[in-house]
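Renewal narrative, Specific Aim 1. Our central claim is that a sequence can be written position by position from structural information alone. The example that follows is taken directly from our test logs and has not been curated for this report. It begins with the C-alpha cells describing the chain, in the order in which they were read.
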C-alpha cells in the first residue's frame, strides 16, 4: 500500500480549551506515573468567531519514546499556563496558532449497542504564529479516500435543505494504514456530477485524492409552540454541525490495478483489522459496564471474517 495522504491545516485564534495534565495510571505500562497532556483545543478560524474547529490531543508526553523532548507537549503546556483564549481574554489577546493535524475517527458504542463513529481532528504539530494569512486557507484538508458510495441528497425546504448536495462515503487511512470510515460533502454542481459518474460501490471502490474545507458551526433553530391563548411559546435549539466539504479532486483516480498503490487483499486486511478493533472497543465497554454493575461477564472470542471481495465499511 502506498503512503496515503491525510493532512489538515487549521490556523486561527485559540477560542477555548479543556487541556489537562494527567499521569499514566496503568501500572503495567512502561510509562506508568509519567505526565502527559490531553484534551481539546478549539480554534476560531474566521474573524467573526463563528467557525470553531476542535482539535483533540489524546496523549502528548513530555518526552517521546526516542528520548527527545516533545515540542507539542511544550506548546500545549504554554497554552495551559498563559490561557490566552478568545473566551477569557477577547479576540485581540487570543493566542494565534497553526496546527498541522490529521483526520481520524472516534468510535464508541451507545447503551443500546449502536456503533457511533465521529470524525475528529487528531493531534498534530502546533506552531505559534503572528500572521493568520487569508481566511480561506485556515481550515483546509487533503486526503486520499477510498470511495464506496455516492448519494445525492435533494433539496427539501421542510428539512431546511436549500440545495441538492452529494455525500461521498468511504474510508481514509492514518499513518499506520488503519482504515477510517468517513463521509464528505460535495456542493459544487460539477463536483456532484463528477463523483456520481464514478459509480463506486462496495465491491468496486474508487481511490482518489480530494481536498476541501473543514467547517464547524453552530446552527440556531427556533420552534414556536401553539398556545390556547396569549403569546406563543418560542424555544431555541442549538446544533453543532461539522462538515468536511470537498472543493476539488484529482482529475484521474488512482489505478486500482496497480499493486504499488493498493491491493484488494490490503483493503480486506484493513477492514478485518477494523472489525477486531471495534470488537475490542465493545468488549472494553461491556467489561466497564459490568464492573460498574458488579456483574460477571463472559469473554467472547473474536474471529476475523474470511477474505472477501466486498469491503464493508
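The sequence written for that structure reads:
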Amino acid at each position: 500500500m502506498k503512503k496515503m495522504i491525510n493532512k489538515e491545516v487549521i490556523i486561527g485564534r485559540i477560542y477555548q480549551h479543556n487541556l489537562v495534565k494527567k499521569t499514566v495510571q496503568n501500572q503495567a505500562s512502561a510509562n506508568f506515573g509519567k505526565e502527559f497532556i490531553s484534551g481539546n483545543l478549539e480554534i476560531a478560524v474566521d474573524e467573526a468567531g463563528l467557525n470553531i474547529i476542535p482539535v483533540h490531543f489524546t496523549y502528548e508526553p513530555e518526552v517521546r519514546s526516542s528520548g527527545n523532548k516533545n515540542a507539542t507537549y511544550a506548546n500545549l503546556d504554554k497554552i495551559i499556563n498563559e490561557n490566552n483564549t478568545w473566551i477569557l481574554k477577547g479576540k485581540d489577546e487570543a493566542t494565534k496558532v497553526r496546527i498541522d493535524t490529521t483526520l481520524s475517527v472516534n468510535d464508541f458504542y451507545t447503551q443500546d449497542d449502536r456503533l457511533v463513529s465521529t470524525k475528529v481532528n487528531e493531534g498534530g504539530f502546533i506552531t505559534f504564529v503572528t500572521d493568520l494569512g487569508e481566511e480561506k486557507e485556515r481550515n483546509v484538508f487533503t486526503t486520499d479516500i477510498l470511495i464506496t458510495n455516492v448519494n445525492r441528497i435533494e433539496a427539501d425546504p421542510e428539512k431546511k435543505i436549500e440545495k441538492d448536495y452529494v455525500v461521498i462515503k468511504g474510508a481514509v487511512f492514518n499513518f499506520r494504514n488503519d482504515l477510517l470510515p468517513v463521509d464528505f460533502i460535495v456542493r459544487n454542481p460539477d463536483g456532484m456530477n463528477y463523483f456520481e459518474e464514478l459509480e463506486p460501490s462496495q465491491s468496486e471502490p474508487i481511490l482518489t485524492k480530494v481536498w476541501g474545507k473543514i467547517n464547524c458551526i453552530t446552527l440556531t433553530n427556533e420552534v414556536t409552540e401553539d398556545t390556547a391563548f396569549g403569546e406563543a411559546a418560542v424555544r431555541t435549539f442549538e446544533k453543532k454541525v461539522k462538515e468536511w466539504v470537498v472543493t476539488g479532486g484529482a482529475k484521474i483516480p488512482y489505478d486500482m490495478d496497480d499493486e504499488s498503490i493498493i491491493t484488494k487483499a490490503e483493503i480486506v486486511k484493513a477492514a478485518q483489522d477494523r472489525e477486531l478493533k471495534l470488537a475490542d472497543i465493545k468488549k472494553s465497554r461491556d467489561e466497564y459496564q459490568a464492573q460498574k454493575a458488579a456483574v460477571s461477564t463472559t469473554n467472547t472470542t473474536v474471529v476475523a471474517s474470511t477474505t472477501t471481495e466486498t469491503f464493508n465499511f
